[in-house]
């Protein structure tokens, strides 16, 4: 018994038998804790628990407990496997601590993947060489010499190609743009970045994807239209007749820009008149991706609004409405208000027929109407915002009217938006008041419509 206690292998065997299970239990708890925190270190800890510790314990048992010679094949095989596992552990730990856990915007997060691949290749090459040199006694000096000479020859042969790749990688490392940014170059007016790799940047222009080598971006001028963040805007130029009042034109254009759906929240558009008489409206947007839609909507609405305000957009006027359309609109007003032929003729001079474009706000929530409007053609949807979403209350069609609270001086509770090209007949408040004084029953009918629409709005918002 004394000989067993005094044997050198005994204490090594006891130490390994006790330390290995305890270490495995501790590492298991650490691994579970890292998994719960979604930590990048969970994988390296798992490698240590499942492979490094068991292989290290086996190697110690072979060398110390069983006293196998270090140059034995069995010991070399176990040491080689352990060396490979340690190499994998080093690569995994380096990647987890330096790059995967890097904060957004830091240089570690911007390092191109090809740099990481090259670094991994170098580490693997050096590690394998050290394993074969120290464990198997291989002479790797000649191998490194051959690799060095081959790299020099290859570099001289491909110096132009390699130079382009390196310049592209430097652009990628700097990251002057991100996925989703809009970039303009001399080859493309504007494109959204959809993919960036070590060789090229892919820009989606809407008419196809342009593939630009990063080496070109490294040597040519380009514009990142998404910078600075949150400050993108477009300038829309329009021209009116010199006889049009500038303040009226600026007020109309700014009001249209405030209703453009793509307008950035919390930002205010502005309209300025230039030295040549052109008006420039600056519309703040969220991203350049909304440029085309915002510009199209604004210009389309400006065409209708200019004619409603009796302004000459591009020095052009038209003869809208035609006599036939005006008579049709007058009949719609007469049927809606139950007017006789005599009453229709009395209100003829107070009726005005105008048009709205698709999507325009005909009547804005929170305002007091100054006129009543009667739908001649097209559709109008009454809508409210409830729970962060736009909810439709009802749709008005030919013969329906809105703006009835002009008589009661009350604010409207819902927006009225044109669903189609809309033609309406306007009657100003004073003319409607005179008409109501002559026809008391008409006020009762208008009051009934007001209460009916209020009840509809309450039902819709309550259901939402």
Question: Which key features would you list for this structure?
Answer:
52% helix; SH3 type barrels; cNMP-bd_dom; 15 helices; MscS_beta-dom_sf; Alpha-Beta Plaits; four-stranded antiparallel β-sheet; 18% strand; alpha+beta; 4 domains; 464 residues; five-stranded antiparallel β-sheet
Characterization of the model:
The protein has helices at 2-6, 8-36, 42-65, 73-100, 107-110, 113-135, 141-157, 159-174, 214-219, 246-258, 291-308, 323-337, 341-347, 429-438, 440-463; strands at residues 182-184, 191-196, 200-204, 209-213, 223-224, 233-239, 270-273, 278-284, 351-356, 361-363, 371-377, 380-386, 389-396, 401-402, 415-418, 422-428. It has 464 residues and is of the alpha+beta class. The chain folds into 4 domains: 2-111; 174-224, Roll (SH3 type barrels), CATH 2.30.30; 233-308, Alpha-Beta Plaits, CATH 3.30.70; 323-463, Jelly Rolls (Sandwich). The protein has a 5-stranded antiparallel beta sheet with strand order 4-3-2-1-5. It has a 4-stranded antiparallel beta sheet with strand order 9-16-11-14. A hairpin with a 4-residue loop joins β7 (270-273) and β8 (278-284). α3 (42-65) packs antiparallel against α4 and α14 (429-438) packs across α15 (440-463). The N and C termini lie far apart (86 Å). Its main location: membrane. Residues 338-453 form the Cyclic nucleotide-binding domain.
